[in-house]
Amino acid sequence: MKPDQQTLSSTFRLRLNSADLVILVLTIVLLFWVYNRLWFNQSSGKADYLVVQIDTQAPLQYPLNQNRLLELDGRRGKSIIEISQGKARFIHSSCRNQFCVFHGWLSTPGDTTACLPNRISIAVKSNSGNGTEPFDALAGEH
Amino acid sequence: MQLHFTTRHDDHRIALLAALAISIHIIESAFPSPLPGIKPGLANVITLFCFIRYGWQTALQVSLLRVLISSLLLGSFLSPTFLLSLSGALLSLASLIIVQWPFRQHLQYQPTAVGYALIASVSHICGQFLVAWYFFIPHPGLFKLLPVFITFAVLLGLLSGIITQLLIKTNTARA
Questions:
Q1: pLDDT by position in tens, chain A (length 142)
Q2: By residue range, what is the domain housing residue B93?
Q3: Cβ contacts (< 8 Å) between A8 and chain B: which residues?
Q4: Which of A29, B28, B64, B124 has CB 3.0 to 4.6 Å from B88, enough for a Cys bridge?
Q5: Interface contacts A/B by beta carbons within 8 Å
């Protein structure tokens, strides 16, 4: 027992043993693996078709393997969507902020963007069902 | 009719530690968080302390009491927050037990509080994340957030591990 109890926290020295170091190294390896797997690996799954929703109309589907330009009439004007090489993007929309255009290409299943003023939203989906789960535990049946 | 409860020293200790953990949990929930789901998790210091000093049974009781009572006090009992909190607490304790298992004959070689805290915080966030993904937001886009969560888990786990080690050292020096 040390006589100077008051200074114990100021003289505290961190002790690590070999098991700690193993855990630390494993955690850092896990961290790198997770970053590599989830952020820098874009080739996980290909989207197969584009779903377009205009205002309250029934959604339209377009295959992503045919390159084309879609000219859609929204509430405020035209929106132009390009489909090219399995990807889709807005290239023009009649709105002020152009968020949908700046979002860029949609390529991974589940990617979504929308032009809210023009009431048009697009999403890319895959046939294998990845990214198509519509509900959660609060909204209804899973 | 009279009820007689005989309480042992262990029960008093569990009550005291659970009260501490609940207080920390509630004080912590008053602070805003930069990202939903990220908070320091300092109540876990108490769980770790129980686990290292008194074994997993005490730690299990203290952390279940903490999750249950603080959810009742905060009004989130049986809500998604409560389920996330419970799943994180259970998975982190389970992984602490699994990590300690190979060292059960040689406890002097077991990790210190820092190693246990890292395991606990990373598995806590993973448990919460899986429950959140499976039940509440079943969208693959959620996985883009996992690296951020694990980064914070490692940093805050190191912090709470250092605090726990300090706590254990001062506690054994006084005893």
A1: 455 555 555 667 888 889 999 999 999 999 999 998 888 765 556 788 899 999 888 899 999 888 999 999 988 889 999 999 888 999 988 888 889 899 989 888 778 899 999 999 999 888 775 444 445 555 544 3
A2: 9-174
A3: 169-170, 173
A4: B124
A5: 88
On whether the CB atoms of residues B105 and B148 are closer than 8 A, the answer is: no
39-68 in chain A: CB under 8 A from chain B: 39
Q: Which two tokens stand for residue B128?
A: 């919460």
Dump the DSSP string for B24-54: HHHHHHTS--SSTT----THHHHHHHHHHHH
A19/B110 Cβ within 8 A? yes
Which is the CATH superfamily of the domain at A49-125? N-utilization substance G protein NusG, insert domain (2.60.320.10)
Q: Do B114 and A20 touch (CB under 8 A)?
A: yes
Q: What is the pLDDT of residues B71-121, one digit of tens each?
A: 999 998 998 889 999 999 999 999 999 999 999 898 888 999 999 999 999
pLDDT in tens, B144-153: 889 999 999 9
Chosen for mutation from B95, B143, B159, B164 (greatest number of chain A CBs closer than 10 Å) is B143
Q: Is A139 in CB contact (< 8 Å) with chain B?
A: no
In a domain, B3, yes or no: no
Beta bridge partners of A90: A81
Closest CA to B126 of B104, B108, B143, B113: B143
Does B105 fall in a domain?
yes
Residue B109's CATH number: 1.10.1760.20
Q: Could you tell me if residue B62 is inside a domain?
A: yes
What number of other Cβ atoms are within 10 A of residue A66's Cβ? 8
User: What is the value of ipTM here, to two decimals?
Assistant: 0.84
Tokens 């952390």, located at residue: B63
